[in-house]
Amino acid sequence: MHLRHRVLFTFVFLVLLVGCGGRDPESEPQLPAASLAPAATQTAVEPTAPPATATAVPPTDTPIPPTAVPEPTETAVPPTDTPEPTAVPTEEPVADEPADVPELVWLPYSYGSYGEPILTMNDGIVEYSSEPAPIEVFFDYSPVSGQIAYGSLFFYGAANEQDSVTDLWVYDYATGTNTQWLEGDVGRAAWSPVANENGQPQLAVAIHNGETFDLHLMTAPFESEMIREDIQPYFSWSPDGQRMAYVVEEGWLMESPAYAGPRVEVAMPEPVYQDGGWVGDAPVWDDERFYLIYADNPFTFADLQTGELFTPVQLDGTPLQETRPTKMLWAVELRHLVTQVEDFSQNVQIYLLSEDLSTVLDIYFLENSQLVGWYKEGESIIVLDINQEPQIWSLSEYRYLTPE
Fold this sequence. Notes:
The protein is mainly β. Helix content is about 5%, strand content about 45%. The strands form 5 sheets. Strands 1, 2, 6, 7, 8, 9, 10, 11, 12, 13, 14, 15 and 16 form a 13-stranded antiparallel beta sheet that branches. β26 and β27 (about 380-385) form a beta hairpin. The radius of gyration is 20 Å and the shape is globular.
């Protein structure tokens, strides 16, 4: 079965994931074993209008009840002392020689099948490669440090029997080694796009506290600094690595410095994710216009300066179809919002927005496609077509490109 079938299976599986642990690896679909290369002939996808109706992707987490709408607030958050490490890092040498650090490493968020090929990009060439470590849950890859953050165990139930967690390992392409960073209770991890002030790669981690998650920063195994307690595992770094956006348990979207003291939170005036969310959700940043964009039905813009929340409308003023994205990319200069949506099939939808971001001028559909990530940030994206072949789509030319 092709990779897109597995990913769809996995996404549905995540809906049932809360409060349960483990899985039967022998029952999972298999990816193609042979390496795949981009097709020699590409077909341009013509711009089309959005369909009249669509079925929204159901949220996969507990809905967040609406709360009263307060005015934007600022709350000082004192730094939290880091406890002494209580465990000894475990390192396992990897048999293969370390490869050059890839520009991109991609797997579906919840993979669960060690040994299958993964997608990588080296020197602009996108291709399938051997999986370098026993990855059961793929969290994130940093092209800055050449490190993969992953779980070696498939998701299992947390102490509250509602959330799902795994352990935390880091594979380093430069040294070819795996290092355990945490033994368990990890719901999500994301690398900073830049090193910290000491030149160290920095990893944001959602660690379960028995009831919900706390947000920690890590630069070494079993050493962490708690940034915020009682969050939901929906967070992201700003492009400069200086700030973070996250959702607190009450349902408020917060933005604060990633490191500095004292930290100051700025809350949006309305709750977000009122229809629930899933562990792969992450707000998208527009640092030029000072907006955060988060998945909703279909998505919402949050003004970091005024606290205003709004959803763009179509040219005729009617609402957009309520198809909730599972992944988003924002091209700042082109004002293109690239989204992955899943209904009965996987599709990529690309929204062209007006200068004031209030109106969707056009929508492009890449049917039966899966969003991988940037080929050239802000200019072109990598998608998998219906045959799981990697393709490159130009946002400005609205066509598939032949790899250089």
